[in-house]
Amino acid sequence: MVNVKEFVEKAIKEIREKVGDGKAIIALSGGVDSSVCAVLAYKAIGDRLIPVFVDTGLMREGEPERIKEIFGHMGLVFVDAKEEFFKALKGVTDPEEKRKIIGELFVRIFERVAEEHKADYLIQGTIYPDIIESMGGIKSHHNVGGFPTKYKFKGVIEPLRELYKDEVREVARYLGLPKEICERMPFPGPGLAVRIVGEVTPEKVEIVRKANKIVEEELEDYEKWQAFAALIGKATGVKGDVRVYGYIIAIRAVTSRDGMTADILPIDYEKLRKITLRITSEIPEVTRVVYDLTPKPPATIEFE
Questions:
Q1: Domains 4-183 and 202-291 belong to one CATH topology
Q2: What is the dihedral of CA 127, 130, 131, 136, to 10 degrees?
Q3: Does domain 202-291 match CATH 3.30.300.10?
Q4: Cβ neighbour number for residue 110 with a 10 Å cutoff
Q5: What is the enclosing helix (H) or strand (E) of 247?
Q6: Per CATH, the architecture of 4-183 is what?
Q7: Could you give the C-alpha distances from 68 to 44, 52, 127, in angstroms and in order?
Q8: Inter-CA distances, 183 with 30, 209, 214, 256, Å
Q9: pTM of the predicted model over 0.90
Q10: CA-based diameter of the chain, in Å?
Q11: Backbone phi, then psi, for 31, in 5-degree steps?
């Protein structure tokens, strides 16, 4: 395990030396990785740090508002880019293409903000598993394999690049971040786009967002790595004595240490039944709910 005190001192020194007298923007998502980076960078360069939150329209319910509450005191720059992301993803069905489109668009937005604020550096919360999976061809993380090869920054700084997720959580606790951040489940950089199999549309995002919230609420007390909902297709069903063609939601819940491998979270039948009934009754467009029993490998944790 990492020596947290030494790591924090080293990371602050690295950021301070690389940025020098300049400014840096940080890609802030509200997850534990980017939140830890934000605190480290703020300690290193103070108000020369510009935290940027891009609302892609692909976030969990209530997430953008909560980010404003927690990080507003740092001079948070809030970018509403929902229309840009939905336009860029229109008609796209390939999972890797989705990730690369999202990674590219993120960087172009960060470049615009950096130009406005005369910032030369980008700081992001890349962790070691992101690098391993992207370089190994398992999937393109939007901040590694999905990151464009050409960009306008003088440099990209990744203070957490050698840490695993559990080590990042240790650093978060040491820095005094709120428990909801320290213990937050991993959430993919491309957001709900990779929890929709096939084309991403505003309607599908809204459905999977609601389903995701139900799964998180119902499994809140379970010890887990991740628990979420994904929209995986359409199937026939019966609602109000009428045959309908609605969406299929998959429940995914796993245990893991670092996300490199994962096992299925044992959930009792009555809990699964309750989740199913809530999803199908609270989201009229859903006709079927399934539970994914596949470990990693052979499956990945996310559906895309």
A1: no
A2: 160
A3: yes
A4: 25
A5: strand 242-255
A6: 3-Layer(aba) Sandwich (3.40)
A7: 21, 10, 24
A8: 12, 20, 18, 14
A9: no
A10: 68
A11: -75, 170
Segments making up each domain of the chain, as ranges: 4-183, 202-291
Residues 30-39: tens digit of each pLDDT: 889 999 999 9
Nearest to 58 by CA among 28, 102, 101: 102
34 closest CA partner among 63, 2, 1? 63
Tell me whether strands 263-264 and 242-255 are parallel, antiparallel or unpaired: antiparallel
Number of neighbouring beta carbons within 10 Å of residue 292: 16
The length of the chain, given as a count of residues: 304
CA nearest to 282, candidates 210, 234, 205: 210
> Are β-strands 24-27 and 77-80 bridged in parallel, bridged antiparallel, or unpaired?
unpaired
Annotated binding residues for ATP, written as ranges, equal: 29-35
Rounded average pLDDT over 224-236: 97
Q: How far apart are CA 220 and CA 215, in angstroms?
A: 8
Mean pLDDT for the stretch of residues 2-9: 95
In angstroms, the CA 228 to CA 250 distance is 8
User: Contact 27/34 with Cβ under 8 angstroms?
Assistant: yes
As annotated, the binding site includes 29-35
Tokens encoding 213: 């919230």
SS3 116: helix
d(CA 228, CA 298): 19
pLDDT, one tens digit per residue, over 138-158 is: 444 444 444 566 678 999 999
The answer to whether 210 touches 195, Cβ cutoff 8 Å, is no
Tokens describing residue 82? 């929902």
